[in-house]
Design brief:
It is an enzyme of class 3 (hydrolase). The chain is of the alpha/beta class. Helices cover 38% and strands 11% of the residues.
Length: 335
């Protein structure tokens, strides 16, 4: 909170204060209930007629690993608590919005871990689009690109898993290309009435996972989605992130974007960084292959489109001095 105050964020927000801080293990479930309630309250706030249309929920514990069934406990009973998550706050808020009459909801999750709980809850629901950008990690062991949804929900679960990312930690340039080619076109084709962002910051450099994003990267991704969906009520809710100073900087960046501040383009958008990434092209080609049947026509997400983009990138690099090899606003809405 001190970082938000220092950045002048708190003076520009309506603060809805819920609960209290707690680190006592016995209070974790009650804290989780307060966190889930806070996301629901924020969602109702942005969907109302008189409140602001954007909100950030600064609450813990996170929620995106919690599912309907979860994993068996020692007694063999199902427990939906998993990965430090007790209640899937974003999923519960989405369900509450459905009950309030919102017919299409988009959830974008950029936590470095796959939101397995969110996927499990909505994988058969075509009214909830779930897009996750995550690393190839042992935990939770889900989130493969081929997992596109079940039954009527096929195509509405989009996993952008940076396969083999232990060997090539993705930078913002990789995320920016994924946002440009996959995330924004699908969001605009889906036309949600509500956007929920599972804002995990453990993909930040220094967090110790297979990604190296600067705080501005999360602000830039948020800004790009808001630009693509300018009139859509939006709630971002804190998920992962384990280095407090870095989490604070990431929160400031995302909240600034929600408030309409201009986000400085992260340094990692240099084409040299993009060219160093071994798996970006392979990952996005695989995503296009998995979803061309679902989004090829409405969102222009095709294998040919992805190939053409990377061919164009290679041509644009030729003859340019290194100092000018930057990706120009990859997070713009134009595709």
């Amino acid at each position: 909170m001190s970082a938000l105050q220092a950045a002048g964020i708190t003076t520009r927000c309506d603060l809805l204060q819920c609960g209290r801080e707690s680190s006592d293990e016995e209070l974790q479930r009650s804290a989780a209930r307060v966190a889930a309630a806070a996301v629901i309250d924020a969602t109702k706030h942005v969907l109302g007629d008189h409140g602001p249309r954007r909100s950030f929920v600064l609450a813990r514990p996170p929620g995106h690993h919690a599912s309907r069934t979860g994993v068996p406990d020692e007694g063999g009973e199902g427990d939906f608590a998993e990965g430090g998550c007790y209640y899937n706050s974003v999923a519960v808020a989405a369900a509450a919005a459905q009950q309030d009459g919102v017919d299409r909801i988009a959830i974008v999750d950029f936590d470095v871990h796959h939101g397995n709980g969110t996927q499990e809850i909505f994988e058969s629901d075509p009214s909830v689009l779930v897009i996750s950008l995550h690393a190839d990690l042992r935990y939770p062991g889900t989130g493969a690109i081929e997992e596109v949804g079940e039954g009527a929900g096929a195509g509405f679960n989009v996993n952008i898993m940076w396969e083999g990312s232990a060997d090539w930690p993705p930078h913002y340039a990789d995320y920016a290309v994924a946002v440009k080619l996959v995330v924004l076109p699908i969001l605009q084709a889906f036309r949600p009435g509500l956007l929920l962002i599972s804002a995990g910051f453990d993909a930040a450099e220094g967090e110790g996972f297979h990604a190296k994003l600067a705080p501005e990267s999360f602000g830039a991704m948020t800004e790009s989605m808001l630009t693509a969906l300018p009139d859509v009520p939006t709630v971002a809710a804190l998920e992962g992130g384990y280095v407090p100073p870095m989490v604070a900087r990431c929160c400031v960046a995302v909240m600034g974007a929600l408030l309409g501040d201009k986000v400085d383009e992260p340094e990692e958008t240099k084409i040299s960084k993009l060219s160093e990434s071994k798996g970006c092209k392979a990952t996005l080609l695989k995503v296009a292959e998995a979803h061309e049947a679902h989004w090829g026509e409405s969102a222009n997400l095709t294998v040919a489109k992805v190939k053409a983009f990377f061919e164009g990138q290679r041509e644009r690099q030729k003859g340019l001095p290194n100092a000018f090899r930057t990706v120009s606003r990859l997070v713009s809405c134009a595709v």
